[in-house]
Structure formats: structure tokens, C-alpha cells
Specification:
- About 25% of the residues lie in helices and about 30% in strands.
- With about 300 residues, the protein is α+β, with helices and mostly antiparallel strands.
- It has two domains: about 1-165, no CATH class; about 175-305, Alpha-Beta Plaits.
- The strands form seven sheets. Strands 1, 3, 5, 8, 9 and 12 form a six-stranded antiparallel beta sheet that branches. Strands 16-19-13-20 form a four-stranded antiparallel beta sheet, with helices on one face. Strands 2-4 form a two-stranded antiparallel ribbon.
- Helix 1 packs across helix 3 (about 110-125).
- The longest helix has 19 residues, at about 205-220.
- The chain is globular and about 55 Å long.
- About 35% of the residues are buried.
Length: about 300
């Protein structure tokens, strides 16, 4: 699957009050800004628009299942993740900087200029909670890929850039197959469902179910097709892996959805957990998901974790 990681850096032009997990804030205004800068028929609804098949906005935000969709995949996954988890700082003063990463999957990498333009536009719209009737504004200073600058802020133009490469589901190595423990730290709330309810505990088989769903849906829609894995067998074998130690907790936070015009509760699991057992064959699945996040609302940056 084609995979690009783009580091954006902004400087605030006024004070800004943001939530601890800032992907949600950026995600909300991102959709509004992208539609504003790309839509040619602004009075036309996307569902009936003659340009829908070639338009960036519905590709990113409003893709619907079609006859190609695997029955196990409920809906196409968004082709991006907004990761702004490097700091939980909430108050940014004028002149302070903030960096975040935009991860793009598959064809979405071709639309990078639109995304850069949209985030430049977001700076003028403002983000975060309004203070004195105004949201925090910012200037887009830099965009980098693989350590190389790809955006000229003075000229407001993109330099030549190619996505970082392919994200591949590698087979387990001999060292992997010898492993009997894996520790995981969740850096942003993980929201996973099992038997139609959100989980607070995290048995290993529930984690692996979530990883398999994420991998199969991304590869089906944005890669070379759903990988040929022993899905049922992997889940059954995951049941034999035990929780050796858990320091997980539930973190509740609210997000206001402009689209739904209502507040949403987006609680999830945070903390550390250590598993013990025959975990070797599962490590490639977890490494893949380290890059693309897990669970629900991954486009907000939720479900980010690291292995150790």
C-alpha cells in the first residue's frame, strides 16, 4: 500500500485553546476547508454531483461501499490519519509552534497539494475553542516528508515530493517466532468494539480482531487487495495469549461535531499492557497497525500505540 508521512509545522498568529488530543480539532475543520478549496459546484450536494467520481472531497470524506466491498468490511476506511499526539499541551500563545503528522494511504498521496492548501486555509479560519469570539489562527510554516522540506512557505508552493514508499505486511521473522512477550503503550484513546460494545479491558484476541479489521479494510480499499490471511485461525490462536500485566484505564473526552451539530463522547483505552504467550506470528500485524492506528475514529488520530 502506498504510504506517505508528512510533517506539518504551524506558528500561531493568536492564542489558541486546543484539546489534549488535537487530531479531532484538525479533523473537523479539515473537512470544511477541503470542501471549500476543492468544490466547483458549491450549491450541489455531493451525492448528486456530476463531478463526484473525480473530486477529492468525496474520495476523502464520503466514500460509500459498492459491489466491490468485501462483506466483512462494513465501510471504506478514510485514506488518512491525523496524528497530533506529540504534546498534550492545550494553550498555545501567539508565536508558539505546533507540529502534527498527516499520514496518507494509497491514491490519497496524489492529492497532497490539496491537503496542504486546505491546511494553509485552516490557518485563516482558526481552530480550537473560541476566546473573545475568535478561534486561534496560524500560519503554515513547513511541510516535510522523510526529513526533506517539500513546501515553500514564502512562495506558498510545493517542492517535488514522492511518498515515503510502500507499507507492507511483512511475514514473521525467525526472531519474531521466538518472542513470547510484547508490551504495548496506547498514546491516544483506543476505541474497539467486541460483541457490539466498547471494550475497557483488552484481551489479546480482541486486539488482534481489531488489527485484522484495520489491515483488511485498508488493503482492500487503498492497497493491492485484502491479504490472504488465516483470519479465523489467527483469532483462535490469539485466545491463548495471556495478559501478564495491565495498567489500562478509560479516558473520556468530548468532541463537538460541526457536521452533526452535536457533542460526541469519544472515550477510549489509554495506558500500558503486557501480553505473554506465542505472539510471534502476530507481531507483523501489530507493526503494520503501529503506522495506521487501530479501532474507531483513527482519522482523528485515535488508537495510536507503540510496541516495546
Amino acid at each position: 500500500m502506498l504510504y506517505g508521512k508528512y510533517l506539518f509545522t504551524v506558528t500561531f498568529c493568536s492564542d489558541a485553546l486546543l484539546p489534549p488530543y488535537k487530531g479531532s480539532t484538525f479533523r473537523g475543520v479539515f473537512g470544511h476547508a477541503l470542501k471549500r478549496v476543492t468544490c466547483a459546484l458549491k450549491r450541489q450536494g455531493c451525492e448528486d454531483c456530476i463531478l463526484r467520481a473525480k473530486c477529492v472531497y468525496p474520495f476523502v470524506f464520503e466514500r460509500m461501499p459498492n459491489e466491490k466491498t468485501n462483506r466483512r468490511i462494513a465501510a471504506p476506511p478514510h485514506p488518512y490519519v491525523l496524528d497530533a499526539t506529540d504534546t498534550e499541551k492545550t494553550l498555545f500563545r501567539k508565536g508558539e509552534h505546533l507540529s502534527f503528522t498527516l499520514k496518507l494511504f494509497g491514491k490519497a498521496n496524489e492529492f497532497l497539494p490539496y491537503f496542504v492548501y486546505a491546511f494553509d486555509h485552516i490557518g485563516t479560519l482558526g481552530i480550537g475553542r473560541a476566546q473573545g469570539g475568535k478561534r486561534g489562527t496560524f500560519a503554515l510554516d513547513a511541510v516535510a516528508c522523510d526529513g526533506r522540506a517539500i513546501y515553500d512557505a514564502k512562495e506558498k508552493s510545493l517542492l517535488e515530493c514522492r511518498p515515503g514508499g510502500q507499507l507492507i505486511l511483512e511475514p514473521a521473522s525467525p526472531d519474531d517466532l521466538d518472542a513470547d512477550r510484547v508490551a504495548i503503550r496506547f498514546l491516544s484513546p483506543l476505541r474497539v468494539k467486541f460483541q457490539n460494545s466498547l471494550e475497557c479491558d483488552l484481551p489479546f484476541h480482541v486486539l488482534i480482531r481489531a488489527a485484522l479489521r484495520r489491515i483488511s479494510s485498508l488493503m482492500e480499499w487503498h492497497g493491492a487487495g485484502e491479504p490472504a490471511l488465516d483470519y479465523r485461525g489467527l483469532v483462535e490462536r490469539a485466545r491463548s495469549v495471556n495478559v501478564l500485566h495491565s495498567n489500562l484505564g478509560w479516558y473520556d473526552w468530548r468532541r463537538y461535531s460541526n457536521r452533526q451539530e452535536s457533542e460526541m463522547m469519544l472515550g477510549g483505552i489509554v495506558g500500558d499492557i503486557l501480553y505473554e504467550g506465542r505472539i510471534g506470528e502476530f507481531l507483523p500485524l501489530l507493526r503494520f497497525c503501529e503506522e495506521v492506528n487501530l479501532g474507531k475514529q483513527t482519522s482523528f488520530g485515535l488508537g495510536k500505540f507503540m510496541l516495546s
